[in-house]
Amino acid sequence: MSKSGEADKSLYERIGEEPFRRIVHAFYEGVAEDAELRALYPEEDLGPAEERLALFLIQYWGGPSTYSQKRGHPRLRMRHAGFHIDAAARDLWLKHMRAAVDGAGLQEADRAELWAYLEYAAGFMVNAA
């Protein structure tokens, strides 16, 4: 396949589902060990949050629409409005996500594309000073 054909594919088409699941799992392992960030997650079991984030990222990046089928429109800001997300929380989230993304073994272009979105989305969730 030509390089331009590969570039026309969605991130999901290029890397598949498993890397998203590995990234999200590694991220939540970090969350579980970080008392400050863990406090933002009300569920005792992080498993449901892990599944929701995995399904969201898979759908966002061109995979199956399972997230929307199960939960409706993502409405990220609305779903996070009840949580105090300040710059420090954003930075902790990004710290653990960065480690997860960097450890996933993605090609540099794929890693950069994913990371640019994650930084943007994390900033978009900030709702407190």
From TrEMBL:
The lineage of its organism: Bacteria, Bacillati, Actinomycetota, Actinomycetes, Catenulisporales. This is Globin. Signal peptide: none annotated. InterPro entries: GlbO/GLB3-like (IPR044203), Globin-like_sf (IPR009050), Globin/Proto (IPR012292), Hemoglobin_trunc (IPR001486). Pfam families: Bac_globin. Belongs to the truncated hemoglobin family. Group II subfamily. The keyword Acyltransferase does not apply. GO terms for molecular function: heme binding; metal ion binding; oxygen binding; oxygen carrier activity. Keywords: Heme, Iron, Metal-binding, Transport.
